[in-house]
Design brief:
Layout (H helix, E strand, L loop, with lengths): L8 H23 L5 E3 L5 E3 H14 L7 E4 L3 E2 L10 E8 L1 H5 L6 E8 L2 E9 L7 E6 L4 E3 L2 E3 L11 E4 L9 H14 L2 E3 L4 H9 L5 E4 L4 H13 L3 E4 L11 E4 L4 H8 L7
Parallel strand pairs: 3-5, 11-12, 11-13
Antiparallel strand pairs: 1-2, 3-4, 5-6, 6-7, 7-8, 8-9, 9-10, 13-15, 14-15
Helix pairs in contact: 1-2, 5-6
């Protein structure tokens, strides 16, 4: 498959995976040291680790695709990517910063490449999971992988057999009734619910079959871009809550595909108007 600048996408993905994995050394190095935390909002945190990983990624990714823009959580950059925009790296240096501050290992780095109106490459690296970390990656049309092993979504076909996952926004004012209404619908219909604290990792877990369903609203492109591609390349489906094609800014529903009709019925407009 050809990459966005005409180069081989496999080579570009390999280089991207290498850079993202190397950035995990920063997370591991900081893990046992005190975190210097500041607040972006009432409960929205940023640490020196977020900043250090983002700087590293931007410096190392820039030469891979000269001229590509950047959209990164901490430093901003390009506007929300659209259909006609050129290549753009979308970066979340530490997805799950609150987990990181509390040394809960569900922490990930998410890097995606947007080009030609879609996510073309995606990498989600969880350096604190397992002895060597867990790195998920995908290229459009080439499947999804975990540490080099191809992964696929689960085969669950009924909601009562499905493990579902969601997340909550930092700002709850005015949103809590919608969140609770969706929980009221999904929790009794499924085998169980989880809230892991990293949307990128939640999507990666749907891709490899550990989770069957993930939904969340108020996510940013850097939270979900790489995971969106992982789910689709693993055979799953990503859409809005009503089943419409997903666009940045929409509430997101990701499933193994088989469960999508039942979940859209649960989470459509009558479940909060999303």
């Amino acid at each position: 498959m050809e990459g966005p600048d005409g180069r081989d996408a496999a080579a570009l993905l390999e280089s991207c995976v290498r850079v993202v994995r190397e950035s995990g050394a920063i997370v591991r190095r900081h893990w046992d040291a005190p975190s210097h935390v500041r607040h972006k909002g009432a409960v929205d945190l940023v640490t020196e680790t977020d900043l250090a990983v983002e700087v590293f990624l931007k410096e190392r990714l820039a030469p891979l695709l000269p001229g590509a823009a950047f959209l990164a959580e901490e430093s901003g950059g390009a506007a929300m990517p659209g259909a006609g925009d050129g290549p753009c790296w979308i970066i979340d240096p530490v997805d799950g910063t609150t987990n990181f501050v509390h040394r809960i290992p569900q922490v990930s780095t998410s890097v995606a490449l947007w080009a030609a109106g879609e996510v073309r490459l995606g990498v989600v690296n969880a350096p604190m999971l397992g002895s060597d970390g867990e790195c998920f990656w995908a290229a459009r049309g080439s499947g999804a992988f975990l540490n080099g092993r191809r992964v696929t979504v689960s085969g669950a076909a009924a909601l009562q057999d499905a493990l579902a996952c969601t997340g909550f926004p930092y700002e709850l004012e005015g949103r809590l009734p919608v969140i609770l209404e969706r929980l009221r619908r999904v929790l009794p219909a499924t085998q169980g619910m989880r809230r892991l604290g990293s949307a990128a990792l939640d999507l990666a877990f749907v891709a490899c079959g550990r989770l069957d369903v993930f939904y969340e609203e108020w996510l940013k492109p850097w939270d979900l871009a790489a995971g969106w591609l992982l789910v689709e390349e693993a055979g799953g489906r990503v859409s809005g809550l009503d089943g419409a094609p997903f666009r940045f800014g929409d509430a997101l529903l990701a499933t193994n595909g088989r469960l999508h009709p039942a979940m859209t019925e649960l989470l459509g407009p009558t479940a909060g108007g999303a």
